[in-house]
Each structure stands twice: as C-alpha cells, then as structure tokens.
TrEMBL record:
Keywords: Metal-binding, Nucleus, Transcription, Transcription regulation. Pfam families: Zn_clus. This is Zn(2)-C6 fungal-type domain-containing protein. One of its GO terms (molecular function) is zinc ion binding. It comes from the Eukaryota.
Amino acid sequence: MNKRGKKTPCEGCRERKKKCTGELPCERCQKLGTKCHYLQPVAVPSADHIRDVNYYQLQLEVDALRDVLTNMEHHLCAIRQRARIKDNNNKSTNDTKDDVNWRLTINNGSISIHTDIKTYAGLLQSIQTIAAEHFSLTTQTILNDHIEFIQRQKLPSKLRTGAFLAVLKCIEMNKQGQLATITYASRSHNYPLQNIILQLMRIYFSCQFLRRVVFHQHTFFKMFIKSTDKLSPVVYALCATVLSERCRHIIKLFASQERIILGERFYDKARELIEAKFDEISLETMMTFTFLATYKANLLYPQEAKMYLEMAMRIRQILAETTYKDPSLCDKGEYITFKRQGVALQYVITVLQYINNKRGMPVEIKSGRNIGNRKQDNMEKYEYSVEYDATVLPDEPPAIARSIAERHCLNLIGKVMSPYYRRVRHGVDDNIPVSLIMKTEEGLKQLYFQKVDPDYRLPMSVFNEDLDDLEFKRRLDNCSQCSIHSVCLAVLFYQSHIGLYEPYLPSLQGSRSQTDSLLDYAPTEHSSSQVNYNILKLHAHQVCFKSARIVVRLLEYLCNVLDTCNVNLGILMCAWEIHRRNACLDMNDDELTKNGVYTYLSAEEINISRAYMFRCVQILKRGYMFNQTERSSWEFFKKSEQQMMEALCISPQPTAEYWEPARPF
C-alpha cells in the first residue's frame, strides 16, 4: 500500500464523514471492498499565462483601432495640406463652403465624434465634397473582402543594391589576388599551428559556437581531439573557419594579414589530411568538407564553397540512409552532431544563394555588367533537404540550450516568411493576393505571441511608440526576459514586418538620389504615377516606419549593452533602407510639397528618419566586423556615409581603415 504524505480523507470517507487513515486504499474502503480514490489537486491558472493568451487578441484590436485613427489623421492632414496649396495658388476659390469641424473624443472606453453637421443631407454633401476634391472613398481597406489583389511597388533597395554589387566586386578582387595570398601564406609564419589551436578553440566555444551550435561539444572532443600530436582534419578546418568569422575576439587577437596567413595554413593542412580519406563515407569527412565550405563562403569564394558543399551534402545523404538511418542503433552524441551539421550547411547555402541573387532583395543588374560569369544557381535542391534538430542533450549547459531554442524559433519565423518572400520578391506577377499578406501576418503574430516561449519573448510594453530612448533602455534593463536571444528574436520579428509591407510603400517622387551613383549602378527607371490615397499604403508606411525604429533601437541595445559580437548586416540594411527612404535626402522643402510627400510623411517623421540614419551608421561601425576580404563592401558603406553627410551639410567624421592591423592584447 502506498502511504500518502498528508492525511487527506478519501472521497468515500469525506462524503460519509468517517475517519480516514489517509492511505491508498484506506482501511475503511478496504474492509467494505469499495473503490478508494482521492481528489487530485488542481493548480490555479497562472495569471501571466491568462494575460499572455488574452493579450494577443486585445493587441490585434488595439492595433486595428490605432491604424484607423492614424489613417484618419493622415487623410485630414492631406486635406488641409492640399487645401492650403489650393488657396495660395487660386484666390478665386468659392468662399461659400465652410470648413467642417470634426472632433474625436475618447472617454471611459467609448469613442465619440462631434461635428457641426446637423442633417443627414449635410453629411452626404460633405462626403461628396471630400471625395471629389481630396481623395476617393471607393478605395477599399485591406480588410475588405472585395479587394483580392494589390499591386506591388518598386522596392526601396538602393542601399541593398549597392551593398550587393560591392559583394560582387569583392569576389572579383578575391579572384585576382587569390594566388598571391596563398603564395605569401605558404612561405610565412612557420611556427607550429598547434600552439594557437587552443586559443582558437577557447574563443570559438565562448562566442561563435553559441551563435551557431553545429555539433555536440563532448562528442567533438571525443572523436576528433584524442591527442595534440595527431589531430583530425575537422579540427584544422574548424580553425580556418574560426579565423574567417566576423568576430571581435578574433580581430583583437590576430591582425588582418595574420588572419589570412593562418587561415590559409589551416586550410592547406585540412586539405592535406583529408586527401587520404577523400572517398570515405564518415562523419569526419562530412564535417571537414562542411567547415571548408564555410571557410570559403566567409571569404567570398563561391565556386570553392559550392564544391565543398556538394561533397558534404553527398556524404550526408549517404549517411542518412545508412549509418544514421536509425537513431537507436548509433551513438546519441554522434547522431545529434550529424543532425546539427545542418545548421552549418544551411549557412553556406544562404551565402551562396545571396551571391547568386536568389536571396534577400533581388537586384536588377545591367546586362553589360561582368559579374564573374556566375553559373546558374542550383541551391534550391539543398535548401529543403536540411532540417533543424532542436534536441538538447542532458550534458549540455543552459547557454547552449538557450542558443538552440533561439535557433529553433528563428527557423520557425523563416518558415512563415519564406513562401511570402519567394512570391513577392522573386515572383514574376506584380499582383499580390491580399489574402497572402493577411495570412502571413497572422501566422507571424500567432507564432511570436503564442508559440514562442515567454522566456524568449519581450513584453509589448517595451515597444510603446511614445517611449524615448532612455525609457526604452530602462524597460529593457528591468525586463526579466531580456537577453541576447530574446532581443534577436524581437529584431527578426519586426524586420519581418518590414519585409511584409515594404513592397506596398507609396512612391515618393523625387530627383535621382545620390546613392544611385555608388559603384556606377544605374537603377531601372519606372514611369511616375499619380499618388493614390490608398489606406493599405498608409498602413504599410506606418508599419515599416514603426518597425524600422524598433529594429534600430534593439540593434543598438545589442551592440552597446549586451555587447554582441556581430550584428546581422541584412537586418540592419533593411531598417536603414526604410529610414533612408523616409529621410528624403534628395528633395528640398519645395519638392517635398510639390510631390505630395507630406501626404504620407510628416516633417517630424522625416527628421526622425534622418537621425536614425546616423544611428544605423554607428551600429555598422561598432557592431559589424568586416573580415579581410570585404574591402569593397567597407568602401561602399564609407561612401554612403560621406554622401549622407554631404546631403545634410554635415562634416563627415574620420573613420578608421578597417584593414589596418589590430594590435594583439
């Protein structure tokens, strides 16, 4: 018999008010031969859980009301602006029409609209006047079932286009200087590589490994570091990869030219050792080729990276069908290492897809431009063959468990947004189904607010638009959920909102921007169209503007407070692009008024975006570590900063040359 710790009467004794021994079964029920059972205690539902469940629906309603109010304000501002212009240009306007006074009052949860319109006929006449002179009321909202498609606009991509072309220029320069680098590396620094392997491993497991957990740490040491005299080619390939990563700790330890030399020496050593096992189907050969592919991808050698990637994927497919087909028949650590290698492979696939203009913002390249005779990309066949495994083994510390959980959430957001990006960014048809926009946004919010663990989700009170920078930082400092992982998830969540709505941003007509001249790039000209007062465009502007501000603030917090090693350049440029567009650096006040920019942008928003552009530059300087092969990319951003300063009549600040050797500490 199981003795219960507390003498709580069973249900039979309690109903008959008999003394109960508190056992299971109790003596009375045992004598009577009746079933003895106890009520199971039920925990009181957590108030935080109830609030999180209800908060999502409430937040959607609040956002909808806020959007309606914001759109009304924009319409009224547009009406007043155009009315002032019309009065200034034409003094003979009919003065018999009186302005209608509107006042919106919110009190005790109710909304009241007060106006001086007295009759229904007066209301109809006012609506007809507004519709005829200011904007068309036949324009439907995004929630109207009658709208099935919305036409995508030209994406704001001048900054990202220049950055992409700079990467292509880096690849061309690498091809020209590759042989010289290898020759110089082969005759320099002959001290043993084993002397610095320990340093590299210590740096790797304290920083880069937590960014991408690509194997089980204990299994890695057990299989590949049995003794310092005879190391596996996996170790040398990993050391080469560590030296090529954009990591602040590596930059402090080794100068730029020294990283190139040591990286090539580790790369050559790994190739030398793997030649004897070239056709061996094993986890060791697969991991060696994976790290060699990562090394070449980091240094922007796409052809070599693709070659090693294909070799690793071929071995991975064979291992999946043989050695690791049944997890119960193999070592648990080896199986987890095999599955986690998909993270490293996915990183290489992402880099190659970006280089081949198949990922991120598509760039229209002039037909006469030489981009290195790049071959047709076939990375699609690998993209969906790599699945992420979020299993955490018992011997792994909490830091690794948190990194794995963060990566799992990031992949879930990517799965929600990927179909939308393929359809909107890379699709041929300009007509986008409104249902696709709504479905994607709903899935994104449900994922973040309902499926993501509360420990990795920042509270919505942090993102109040009325907060200044000090209050924003104070709330993050006092937030128990605030960590590198939760901030990174929030950054991707709000960047996804920018990617969701930026194809529908209203066109701001203006002169040719100065940034178009970067790298001699000439964008495709589009015929100007009349500004359409579309509520979806206003909504897209508000979402992108708000999200871009939040992304910049969070990236600043990552760099300045959490001291992250390296920010995501793609996410930074996405927010930077929105602020660059809203800053209207190529238009003066007269052009802003003439082109109807104030219909969508207020003077305050323009000034805010200009200030945030400077903050983006500071994030880039502090948070993004250019490696030794990205000189053209660095020069592009330096030129962008100079042109921004010139447009605002500000003296540019001196910037250190990134390729200057860093002093070891």
